[in-house]
Amino acid sequence: MAGGNQTTTEYIQHHLQNLVFGNHPEHGWGFAHSAQDAADMGFWAIHLDSLLWSAGLGVIFCWLFYRAARKASTEVPTGFQNFAEWIIEFIDSTVKDSFHGRNKMIAPLALTIFVWVFLMNLMDLIPVDLVPWAFSLLGVHYQKIVPSTDPNVTLGMALAVFILMLYYSFKIKGVGFIKELTLHPFNHWAFIPVNLFMEVVGLLAKPFSLGLRLFGNMYAGEMIFILIATMYSAGLILGIFGGFLQMGWAIFHILIITLQAFIFMVLTVVYLSMAHEDH
Amino acid sequence: MNINLTLFGQMVTFAVFVWFCMKFVWPALTNAMEERKNKIADGLDAADRAMRDLELAQTRATDQLKEAKQEAARLVEQANKRANQIIEEAKNLARVEGERLKLAAKAEIEQDVNRAREELRGKVAALALAGAEKILESTIDESANRAIVDKLAAQL
B68, CA 20 to 30 Å: which among A190, A191, B12, B50? Predict the structure, then answer.
């Protein structure tokens, strides 16, 4: 446990604090030394840990699959190539099931989302204290290694998906998209404001539910891991019990992280498919 | 848990990875898979074709074997026939030759007999004369009696 003589509350709060770099109104640019510092920095700050871990995992994903793609040939595939092709086949069939338009971007997008989100979620299975402890030895006090427990990360991806949704809606439907927003449930000019309000709420709900679903699931999972971890400092019996709990939760979590990555991918494909459908 | 610039940082990172995946990963892998699929389909087709070819070749081979057997049987039969014919011919030839030889021998024997008879005739005449000479103890006029003895000899 970092810090030695913390209370349980401090321990949990410490674990939920990102490594923030930003412009503090009093101290200028620098790392936040407390949650208060981070809050004071406001919008002009970045979570270095979230960004670097997610980018690093993305690079790992790209590197692995690029290596497979470079070696791709019509010969008998071996090793990781098999695995990559299996995932690609799986993504391809999923995308073909729910997306009927023609768009070269959707399938690679789905692959990126699935593997990347899965890798980010996978960080949840690393014992919660291990990496932060290692970083604290290097003098870095805050470290959250699961990027998908950061709403910035999940909402950032959801927003990117939202931008794509808007782009393709306008590109494919043009004026039809405006009509869809204004004349949809009640096809009468007097209802335009009501329609617009309902449709815009419905539209905005998509990216927010997309991002917050992933965030909520991973945050809750992470929180349970942290709570289990607090049992280790509460005596031998509770510690052993906590060990079993952690193992059980981790095994169950394997299902959750895969499922959440899959849901994020499928919903993205479905939303973009809706953006492509011209009524 | 504050919403801050990380949001946009993540959007940019996301866009970069999607672009990379779209550019370098997806097409290469799907193309290779597609090509392999075609190759396998071709291979299976070729295997089917080869199987059919094999069957055809087998039936053809069986046919040819049967034909060859029939041909061989025919040849053997022909050869047998020919052999019998040759034997028959040889027999005939031998018979004719034997006949001829027999006739020749007969003729020769006849000739010898005749010759011996002639000789004997001559000698009998001389013998008769010599005998008569001895009996008579006188010389018989050979030329006078010659005709008588010759007549006698001719009767032999």
Answer: B50
Chains A, B: CB pairs < 8 Å:
134
Q: Say which of B5, B9, B21 has its CB closest to residue A43.
A: B5
Is there a domain that residue A16 lies in?
Answer: no
ipTM over 0.95: no
Residue A187, domain member (yes or no): yes
Q: How many domains would you assign to chain A?
A: 1
The pLDDT assigned to A1 comes to 41
Q: Is residue A31 part of a domain?
A: no
**What is the predicted pLDDT for the residue at A212?**
94
Tell me which chain A residue has its CA closest to the CA of residue B22: A108
Domain that holds residue A231: 49-276
Is residue B99 over pLDDT 90?
A: yes
Task: Compare CB distances from A66 to B7, B16, B25 and report the shortest one's residue.
Answer: B25
> Which token pair is A42?
């406001």
A50 given a catalytic annotation = no
* CB within 8 Å: B6 and A43: no
